[in-house]
Structures are given as C-alpha cells and as structure tokens.
Amino acid sequence: MQIIIFVQGGNTRQESLKNALNAVESKYVLVSDIARACVSEEFLEHIIAQKGQSDTVVPYLNVTDTIVYDGKTIDREKVKRVQTPQLSRTDVLRDALQTDEEFTDESSAIVANGGNRTFILGDEDAHKITYIQDLNKIPCLDAPSGDILSGNGFDVHAFDTKGEMWLGGVKIDSEYGFLAHSDGDVALHSLIDALLGAAGMGDIGMLFPDNDEKYKGIDSKELLKIVVTKLNNFGFVIINVDITIAAQKPRIAKYKMQMRSV
User: Which CATH class is domain 159-261?
Assistant: First the structure.
C-alpha cells in the first residue's frame, strides 16, 4: 500500500524541503520541482539506477547556444542546465541544508557542504514551467479543449411580503420579495445551476444545501463567486450567459444594465 505524507511548506523552497526531510526515513530521497510536469517513469528509473555513485545524482542538459558571461564568451561545453529530480543521500542532504544560505537546487547545497555529485544526461521533456510560454514546451500535457459546453438553469420561489426582492444581484424596488433560505435571487440561482450543469458539477442544491445554516440569508452574489472560482480552478472559461426572467411584475428594464455589471 502506498502511503503519501503531506508536509507543510515554508516560505522558501529550501525551507519546505527541510520540513519534508523530517518525514523521510529512507537512505535516499528524490526531490523534484513541482513545476516539472513531464517527469517520466523511464527518467526516474535512469536516475535511480545511478544511486551510490556519489552523494547526489544530478540530471542535466547540454547548452547549444553561445554563452556570454560578464561580457566574455565562455566555453559552453563546460555549462550545464541542471534539472530535477535529483537523487541524494538523505542524511547528506539533510546536513547540507542546515545553513541560512539559500540554494536553488539540492546538489549545490551538498557540494557547498563538502559533498560530491554525479552528473547524468537529463530529459528535454522534463521542462520546467516558469513562464507562460513554457506551457507550449510541455509534451505530456494536452492543449485545452476547444469544446463549448452549455447548461440550462431554472429556479422559482414563492413570494413573501416580509422579504426584499433581489434579482441578478440587484435589489429591486418592490413591495414583496421571495421566500427562500438564501436571498432568493432566482436569476443568479438559475445562472449558478446553468454553470454547474455545463461543467458537470452537479447543481446549486448539492453545492449549497438549504439545510446548511451558513447559507441562510446569504447574498447570492457570494455563491456565484464561489462557483466561478471553482470553474476557473478546473480550467473552465465562461464565454457568455443569457438570462430570461418570466414575470408580469416587477418591471426590470431599468435594472438590466446594473445586473450586467454585478
């Protein structure tokens, strides 16, 4: 059975690594940048196969461009683009990190502490995502889908002379409102249902049950923000929405532009 232990990170990469090493009991440890999306099983096996040769095994890539440093052209054959994952002796790495000096990779810390390292040829596919254009260099990730998904939402509430009327996130001048657990904004509730339906994420009742007291009287705009954030986090992009309100009154023509801007 595989056991995964989550460890709280720190303010820096090095601090996070030190925290993680407190939970490591094995003789060797593999450390990788989370920004490397395409680390293959074959690449990992290639690194692990070199264990025992030195304190740390470091994959690298050659440099093919001319390199100028401090105004002088240097021998690019001596330049290495260091990658992760790096395989290190756990005790050696743990000891090397007991310093306030910050290192950008494990091998640099180990060498600075008197240890040694072995370089092995890395993998171009294990490209590090740093800038937005790096996403175009990730072979193991499919491009975002161009499919357009649509959803429908429908909501009704009984009138209530004691409450306020909210539609589309706007307070409507009316002598009655809606009877509801939240603010009863049927327009935003329908929109939320449509968005969740298009994304295949259930419906408003599943996400915000009416027997949960934390949603009692809540502003439906807050519910919509939660849903939009959820969709964005899953990679969905909202292109446009269309809302139809079927009612004889109140008349909402003067509120339309305000609803659009909410």
Answer: alpha beta
